[in-house]
Amino acid sequence: MVRSSRDEVSPGLWRREAGTVLRRAGALPERVPDSGAVVADFRIVAAPTEWAEHAHRLHELVWVRGGTLTSRVGDRVFTVFEGHGLWMPAGVVHAGRATEGARFHSAFFAPDRTPFAFGEPKAIAMTPLLVSLLTHLSRTDLAEAARLRAEAVVFDVIEPSEHQLALRLPGDARIDAIAEALLDDPADSRSLEEWARLLETSDRTITRAFRRSTGLSFAQWRQMLRVHRALTLLSDGFDVTSVSELLGYAQPSSFIAAFRRVMGTTPGAFLGAVTASRDVRNPVSGGENPGLSA
Prior knowledge:
Layout: E1 21-23, E2 38-44, E3 49-54, E4 59-65, E5 69-73, E6 76-80, E7 84-88, E8 94-98, E9 103-109, E10 122-125, H1 128-137, H2 144-157, E11 166-168, H3 176-184, H4 192-198, H5 203-214, H6 218-235, H7 240-246, H8 252-263, H9 267-277
Parallel strand pairs: 1-3
Antiparallel strand pairs: 2-9, 3-8, 4-7, 4-9, 5-6, 5-8, 6-11, 7-10
Helix pairs in contact: 1-2, 4-5, 6-8, 6-9, 7-8
């Protein structure tokens, strides 16, 4: 069902939604089976869920279907959406949020048995083959030889995504107030000049500070932030017009153009892909194992 802007929604990226379940890291594997390098599972996120800052002894790859995952790592915000995953190296402290109803998948990799290394968080292309293999590895009845064969193919096909959708937070006292206000409400449409007057500085100072700390202009940074939020709203079932309104665009066409500049596709096409994927069954295992959901 497509939701409209009449439903209550909090447009802020890190503003906590009503009904959010707060969790610590939970019961995470400390090691993989003796016969392999990967342990995988999935669960259904029954309510908006937030995980406090934590780290793992194992590398982690997370991806979602039918929703989004937002992860904050230091001064960066990552958004994981349909068709993409996030690689989190062992020992990296991070926090996260998943939207209600998302199918949350995770795979943990033993660092000493994984023949590649991503030294920092990285978006991963979750191809149908990779998803099938990791779903296959979530089975608890695999023979050792079958598990090792599947893991070997995983190591061959796992690759970074073309979309490394990370938003860098400024961490600059001169503009932190702007960043926090926009994180709380991406629809805030105050201009560069208005912010300069409010902060008793110059628009040139704000422009330089954004460029130096994020690599983007003020307008580009706000546009990127809005796209991050749009991915979550679209995955939640909001129509394009409603998302445009919620994010402060005067016209849906302006939102569509901004989304396309960042994502290389229209929000309508993205929404269609998310909707189509919800009923796709896994070709290797014949479907996801409901016994692993929580």
